[in-house]
Amino acid sequence: MAATERSDRAGAIIAAALALPGVCAHAENAPEHGVVAVKYLHYQDSQPGLQRIRVEAPSLYVLAPLGSRWSVEGSAVYDSVSGATPRYHTAISGATPHMTEERKAGDVKVTRYNERSSFGVGVSHSSERDYKSTAGSFEAGFTSDDGNRTWNFGLGYASDTIGSTNDATLHESRRTAEAQVGVTQAWSANDLFQLNLTYVGGRGYFSDPYKEPDIRPRKRDEAIVLVRWNHYFDGAGATLRSAYRFYRDSFRINAHTLGAEWVQQVGSMVTVTPSVRLYTQSAASFYFDPVYDPDVGAPYPPGYFTNPPQYISPDQRLSAFGAVTVGLKLGVQITPDWTTDLKAEHYEQRGSWRVGGTGSPGLDPFRATFVQVGVAKRF
Amino acid sequence: MPRPVSTPRLGRLARSLVLCVAVCAATAASALDAGAAAPELNLPGLSDAVNLAALKGKVVYVDFWASWCGPCKQSFPFMNDLQARYRSDGLEIVAINVDAKRGDADRFLADVPARFAIAFDAKGETARRFDVKAMPSSVLIDRTGKVVAMHKGFRDEDRKELELRIAQALAAK
Amino acid sequence: MSRPLRFVRSAFAALLAAGACSGCAFNPPQPWEKGNLARQEMTMGGDPLDQRFVQHIYGSKENASGGYGVGGGGCGCN
Question: Which CATH number does A3-378 carry?
Fold first, then answer.
């Protein structure tokens, strides 16, 4: 992703600690099979009149059981990012910087499985020219005797350093700590529920050095509630996977995410999965609309120099908007050990699509298309 | 059964959690202690019916399996081996399938050959009688029809212990 | 309504809506009834590389991110 719009997210620590593939996604089972998978992402986003960011990213994933009580899992990705992003709001100008960027990231996790519990330790690292992040995580899972309920606990810590290709003197950093509690319940023979509560505390530099003017608080606390539900329809041979997430942070942003996908078995080898995702967020308390000072002009809001605000940002990502993603995935099980998949998604974000309030005015709609193609082998 | 601490607006989720605790507590006591008489087992098999009472005098190793259970794939070659080596000593392996759909079991058996008796318990009534707590589960029954031991799950390192118990049960008078 | 109350209401409404559908009575399965829960698409996590890409994309285009994490529970082999 553009250096200006990277995912500065320690939650990725625990998010990367994903459920293991395999027959029984159970906290206490070492996986029965190893997996090697490769996947390629092509991503292109735009706003009217401007192709923005393009990303080409190959990635690799390996899961290896070590005996019946241990497993190791890791992934690596290499992003080639190129393009331009507005310096403020969605303003296109000759000064819109065009750049190319590389991002390398990897993560490794080791998990120990006992009779009714499991413990995992993971590290991850991501680096680009102007941004480096190192993170560690620890998780524990405890399953009831009947195997129907699992409690999960996770802790994560990340340390980031931030620079700027525009300003060689910028050396900033931030630290983020994260704690998560979750429970997964087999509700019936065809239903699985999960509830996760996460709290994140971040301290340090959160501003975007490529946006002007951009001064953000040196602290960001987040609270997240996630509910997920998987339901199997015996008659149709299909699974409905749905999720709702509530997010709120100390920038005063509230966000709701609602997603659903329908995994339809077609014959014995093919699955077709249409998906839809709805997102809405409120604006950060220090986001300002594209209304500029009549004397000084863009990008400064009225009164910026006579009465300077403590915090301010013109970043579209902090505005109030709604977004919709529609997607379709095709999976083919070529042999019991080989699978291949192809997924295409289209994303659109508009101020007017905000739910539960007025969207931020004056911003161009933002669109993105991303396609993933992958192959996996089980061994 | 624990008494729920309730307010008039006790949420559905909280009520469900209390119910689950009650259900879990009620089933904590195992019906299959060592030395108890084995529960009734009378099920359709691949060709003939399988009846535990008719197998008195043999040592019977009952295994509950399903097509969706990964460790079951590994336990079948182990059971093939045991049945071949100890058949003449009086070991009878009975593998009870609990798949809801017979087609799934047939597909599994086409992939993973079984050279021991197979029985079908699609409704899970026999599994319930045997108080199955994990998949797979195996129950070792001695020549007098009493339960020797019950084993939950199947891991590579379980083989030695399982075979030892079988050998001891075969040797016992 | 105050913000904390709205917060609780959103999460709880989601739970109720999920639990209120017919045919979704709370009836945790016996160990031998977990065949459907064992299906690949019933895991909570999903495709690991797909999830990594998609969470990274949304994290850089929207403000909310995270909240996911380990899946599990309900299947019961071993």
Answer: 2.40.160.40
